[in-house]
């Protein structure tokens, strides 16, 4: 059961018309849309593989573009948080350290996912015809489905708590919704 009163109070701290906030929402929504559209286009046409001369080179190029877009997204997220008011009742050490712990767990999931999958496994190599020997079932995949997505979401949640940012919490919800849609689309 969702406490609507608490949510309304929380949203009272967020200016959703702020340009920085809008840019953050757009960058959050754009990223999974971009990589899914490009990967499916590559799978159907092999156009990137032809342009770059090999599936590996094309996959590395897409992966680099995704990393750059993720940097833009994180920058927009941070700037949107900084331009909005803090929630004074959360600006305490316990909130900061709780956020730090959540971010650390998220980072563990993201890094361990990358190490388990490798670059081409992480950045949609299967759409380029670069297949893994077998499905990865070791940690963190043994604990959680889509650990990179949920680890990334946890990082943003932790970052929001560390900054006592209602705008960050709302943007984290946008991240979670975007990844949920991506998982449904990818599945």
TrEMBL record:
<keyword id="KW-0812">Transmembrane</keyword>
<keyword id="KW-0443">Lipid metabolism</keyword>
<dbReference type="GO" id="GO:0006656">
    <property type="term" value="P:phosphatidylcholine biosynthetic process"/>
</dbReference>
<keyword id="KW-0444">Lipid biosynthesis</keyword>
<dbReference type="InterPro" id="IPR024960">
    <property type="entry name" value="PEMT/MFAP"/>
</dbReference>
<dbReference type="GO" id="GO:0032259">
    <property type="term" value="P:methylation"/>
</dbReference>
<feature type="transmembrane region" description="Helical">
    <location>
        <begin position="167"/>
        <end position="185"/>
    </location>
</feature>
<feature type="transmembrane region" description="Helical">
    <location>
        <begin position="94"/>
        <end position="119"/>
    </location>
</feature>
<dbReference type="GO" id="GO:0004608">
    <property type="term" value="F:phosphatidylethanolamine N-methyltransferase activity"/>
</dbReference>
<dbReference type="Pfam" id="PF04191">
    <property type="entry name" value="PEMT"/>
</dbReference>
<dbReference type="GO" id="GO:0000773">
    <property type="term" value="F:phosphatidyl-N-methylethanolamine N-methyltransferase activity"/>
</dbReference>
<keyword id="KW-0256">Endoplasmic reticulum</keyword>
<keyword id="KW-0808">Transferase</keyword>
<comment type="pathway">
    <text>Phospholipid metabolism; phosphatidylcholine biosynthesis.</text>
</comment>
<feature type="transmembrane region" description="Helical">
    <location>
        <begin position="20"/>
        <end position="39"/>
    </location>
</feature>
<keyword id="KW-0594">Phospholipid biosynthesis</keyword>
<protein>
    <recommendedName>
        <fullName>Phosphatidylethanolamine N-methyltransferase</fullName>
        <ecNumber>2.1.1.17</ecNumber>
        <ecNumber>2.1.1.71</ecNumber>
    </recommendedName>
</protein>
<keyword id="KW-0949">S-adenosyl-L-methionine</keyword>
<dbReference type="GO" id="GO:0005789">
    <property type="term" value="C:endoplasmic reticulum membrane"/>
</dbReference>
<keyword id="KW-0489">Methyltransferase</keyword>
<dbReference type="InterPro" id="IPR007318">
    <property type="entry name" value="Phopholipid_MeTrfase"/>
</dbReference>
<keyword id="KW-0472">Membrane</keyword>
<keyword id="KW-1133">Transmembrane helix</keyword>
<comment type="pathway">
    <text>Lipid metabolism.</text>
</comment>
<keyword id="KW-0496">Mitochondrion</keyword>
<keyword id="KW-1208">Phospholipid metabolism</keyword>
């Amino acid at each position: 059961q969702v406490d609507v009163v608490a949510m309304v109070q929380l949203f009272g701290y967020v200016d959703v018309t702020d340009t920085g906030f809008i840019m953050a929402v757009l960058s959050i929504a754009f990223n999974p849309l971009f990589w899914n559209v490009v990967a499916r286009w590559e799978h159907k046409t092999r156009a990137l593989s032809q342009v770059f001369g090999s599936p590996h080179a094309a996959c590395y190029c897409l992966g680099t573009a995704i990393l750059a877009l993720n940097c833009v997204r994180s920058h927009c997220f941070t700037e949107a948080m900084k331009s909005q008011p803090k929630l004074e009742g959360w600006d305490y050490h316990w909130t900061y350290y709780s956020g730090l712990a959540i971010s650390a767990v998220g980072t563990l999931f993201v890094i361990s996912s990358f190490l388990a999958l490798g670059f081409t496994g992480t950045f949609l190599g299967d759409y380029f015809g670069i297949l893994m020997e077998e499905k990865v079932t070791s940690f963190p995949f043994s604990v959680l489905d889509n650990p990179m997505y949920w680890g990334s979401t946890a990082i943003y949640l932790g970052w929001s708590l560390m900054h006592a940012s209602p705008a960050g919490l709302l943007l984290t919800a946008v991240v979670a919704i975007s990844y949920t849609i991506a998982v449904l689309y990818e599945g």
